[in-house]
């Protein structure tokens, strides 16, 4: 778990849409990023060069007034020791402006509960951010994640807005691919030669106590139409062949 160059830049992008005043990280986030790279974007960086974790960096670069972390163990000094496989304690409901999942959820078995805990801990108007394994991370954790999950969950019916999903090649910090929400019962499959991240941001629009019926979009169309979707051979793209320079959206 940690903040690498992709997540650092994604946080810079997400800062445009929400505040980082009271920030929560899932797991205590280490800094896995070239020190010289951070120095280009943070004033007075020298005071943070020897720090292993993200708290002071988030305060300096993103305006956080407090940074909490939640983990199943205190082995890295998390401020909240709690098992995210279980429902969150009431005292943390609606407590955070920004919640950062920088490579934690894939290590937790009960993914629906993790996602619901994040939703419940977010303030109304708060931002939820994920940087998770999407492809070629087999063995890293329990799970790898598809953009479809986040489009199906983070929609207006479930109390979210402004959802954006990107894919990023772990070995290429110069570009992201922006993923469009599936429509008309079509699937769009992405493949990659290298490990790939899925980068997600969304805003909550109301108090969330539970999720509604979350189903894969092409099946919803099939059930509605009473027949298989017409796109029996889904469009497929190699992540390496599509690029979006992240600097154009920062």
Please provide a brief summary of the model.
With 250 residues, the chain is α/β, with parallel strands linked by helices. The chain has helices spanning 5-14, 35-39, 55-62, 111-121, 147-153, 217-225, and strands spanning 2-3, 22-26, 30-31, 66-71, 80-81, 96-101, 122-135, 160-169, 175-179, 188-191, 196-204, 235-238, 244-245.
Written overview of the protein:
With 250 residues, the protein is an alpha/beta fold. It has one domain: Rossmann fold (3-Layer(aba) Sandwich), CATH 3.40.50.150. It has helices at residues 5-14, 35-39, 55-62, 111-121, 147-153, 217-225; strands spanning 2-3, 22-26, 30-31, 66-71, 80-81, 96-101, 122-135, 160-169, 175-179, 188-191, 196-204, 235-238, 244-245. Strands 5-4-2-6-7-11-8-9-13 form a nine-stranded mixed β-sheet, with helices on both faces. Strands 1-3 form a two-stranded parallel ribbon. A two-stranded parallel ribbon has the order 10-12. Strand 8 and strand 9 (175-179) form a beta hairpin. The radius of gyration is 18 Å and the shape is globular.
């Amino acid at each position: 778990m940690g903040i690498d160059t992709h997540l650092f830049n994604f946080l810079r992008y997400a800062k445009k849409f929400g505040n980082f005043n009271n920030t929560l990280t899932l797991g205590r986030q280490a800094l896995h990023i070239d020190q010289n790279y951070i120095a280009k974007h943070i004033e007075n960086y020298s005071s943070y060069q020897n720090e292993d974790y993200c708290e002071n960096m988030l305060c300096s670069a993103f305006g956080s007034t407090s940074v909490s972390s939640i983990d199943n163990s205190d082995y890295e000094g998390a401020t909240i020791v709690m098992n995210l496989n279980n429902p969150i304690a009431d005292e943390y409901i609606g407590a955070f402006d920004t919640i950062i999942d920088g490579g934690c959820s894939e290590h937790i078995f009960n993914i629906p509960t993790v996602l619901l805990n994040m939703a419940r801990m977010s303030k109304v108007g708060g931002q939820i951010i994920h940087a998770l394994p999407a492809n070629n991370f087999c063995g890293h954790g329990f799970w790898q994640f598809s953009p479809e999950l986040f489009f199906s969950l983070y929609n207006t019916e479930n109390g979210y807005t402004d959802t954006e999903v990107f894919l990023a090649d772990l070995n290429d910090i110069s570009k992201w691919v922006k993923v469009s929400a599936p429509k008309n019962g079509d699937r769009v499959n992405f493949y990659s030669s290298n490990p790939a991240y899925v980068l997600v941001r969304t805003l909550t629009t109301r108090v969330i106590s539970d999720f509604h019926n979350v189903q894969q979009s092409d099946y919803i169309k099939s059930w509605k139409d009473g027949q298989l979707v017409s796109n029996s051979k889904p469009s497929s793209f190699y992540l390496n062949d599509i690029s979006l320079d992240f600097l154009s959206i920062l």
